[in-house]
Amino acid sequence: MLIGLDIGGTKIEGVIVSPDNSEVIERLRVDTPKTHYADFLSAVRSVIDSLMEKTLASSVGIGCCGSINRTTGKMQGANILYLNGEDFLGDLRSYYNLPVALTNDANCLAISEFKSGAAKDAQDSCLAVIIGTGCGGGIVIHGNIVDGQHGLGGEIGHNPLPGYRVDTDGPTTQCYCGSHNCNELFVSGTGFERTWALKHPKLSAKEIFNRYANKDKDAVEHVEYYADCLARILGAIVNVIDPEVIVLGGGVSNQQAIYPLVEDKLKNYTFSKNVDTPVRQALHGDSSGVLGAAYLPVMKGMVN
Ligand SMILES: [Zn+2]
């Protein structure tokens, strides 16, 4: 059996997953401690220990914000701030005589969808993109997740928007990461509302999509524009890794209208115009974090 944990700012969720059919056999949640790493570590251990009492586990996978600095082995870029600078993975490995691995939520999405979700028919590769509050991505190639040398594999949210032009995409805008015109500023849910507000009175993404459904001219134009931005971003990735399937997760991915638009526009931005890469909605929803985490050690070849 596989143990997977999804660690967020408010809760730590752990599951036991059957590797045969991805069935979640046990599920457990505790609150994420607010201030101290020591409390956090014991909360994580309590979840793992409780799950291990119920099954013979072969590995533990962790989905968590941030990444591990390959030089120091310590956490970086986590929005659970006390985690940064801690040897979280090393500490867990010192407690458990099992393979333990850690990656971020976008990679967990890619893994869970590749193993048993919207990309399960893919033999070798998929790209998963979260279009929620922010924009992140994960890449599976040759059946393994691509972490990369600096833990940045798949982080497409902070590339500059391909084909950016002031007249079509609005004035140059700085992202919180320090770069300008990042993809996230255009295709996250927040970005969808931001670019709408450049031309119209502010509205929520939900309201804009409601107007789109009612064929409001401005909303139709905006959703077309949004799909075009997404196609530009995905087209640039297709030209590099050419994945078998592209999976979208996060809030905006629930909008069915975007899929045919993005699939249709994708070939405008790829080297070959015959590209027919399917763009699909993620299947696992909120469970992608725990499922992807559970499968992480399997993907990395740490367990069979
Ligand atoms: Zn950025």
UniProtKB/TrEMBL annotation:
SUPFAM superfamilies with a match to the protein in the record: Actin-like ATPase domain (SSF53067)
UniProt entry keywords in alphabetical sequence: Carbohydrate metabolism, Kinase, Transferase
A GO molecular-function annotation: hexokinase activity
Keyword Protein transport annotated: no
Coiled coil: none
Short name of one Pfam family: ROK
PROSITE patterns assigned to the protein according to its UniProt record, in alphabetical order: ROK
The UniProt record lists the keyword Transcription: no
Gene3D superfamilies the record matches: 3.30.420.40
Entry protein name: Sugar kinase
Species annotation: Vibrio panuliri
